[in-house]
What does this fold into?
Amino acid sequence: MAIVSLKAGSRAIDSILQQNNAVTCDYILSPEAISAVPQSSLSTHPTFTALRRSLRDSLRNCTVFTGVFLTMPDRTVSNSVVTYARDRATQIRNKQRFIPFGEYLPCRNILGKIEWINNAVPYDLTATPNRSEIIRIDGDGISSLICYEGIFGDDMCRYCRQGAEIFFISVSNEIVDNMHCEKQMLNISRANAITTDRSIVRAVQNGLSYAVDNRGRVLAFCDNADSMVVQNVELTSKQTFYTKHYRRIEYFYGFLFIGGIGWCMTAAGKSEKTGPSDFSKGLRGRIVGRSVGSY
It folds into this structure.
């Protein structure tokens, strides 16, 4: 498994692959949205032509997961991951969870009337449905997530139940540009890796690229550089207890939370009706006695 990391503003993926053509790996993961590509010209677009020329020598049989803005035939735009390999059919997964005020404007018919808000988010990306959430290559089940889709543990549990054996996450940190958030994302990835018993590989532009194993251990790490990191990662199909029962566990904790709030409100109401307890009276008397004694 190879992870391509890019600096802010860089589109050097082709040169990175050419510099590492002696590397042997099955998959190469690149960051999110490195190019804008019409769906009708995937096979002939310069982005994929350059990839084809870069996949030579040891990389000849690799499959590249490339993040692109995909223009659909109806002129809508989707944030997508496209797989490319010399001898395999292209597969596409479209992003389903968009960032509010970043990739779409909530309540556009109201907020869009405010000029500076509308200028900041001039158009909405489209959540194009996927035929399958799992990309299957030579028997491997791969869930290829985009950007902050990687923080939703519920989705990841659902994808595990659909056959995901590993998670790839393509990210761009150019807009947020916050390394504190990147460190939080690393911790979230480690937690999700443990709860799902899956390895997580993350490729970022202007951020932290890494591979985390199914025990939450960081195997490979790259900090905001034009480079490629190669790491062996494990694919697993075992379903954890949390993956199987995550809905019930969430409902259980939800009931505990609501019950705790209800108990606190009931206890507060009783104390208002009955007045202060003997304990609070005694405590207040000791405090007053000490204050008088101090004079």
Summary: The first strand starts at residue 2 and ends at 5. Confidence is low (pLDDT under 50) at residues 291-295. Residues 2-239 form a domain with the Nitrilase/N-carbamoyl-D-aminoacid amidohydrolase fold (CATH 3.60.110.10).
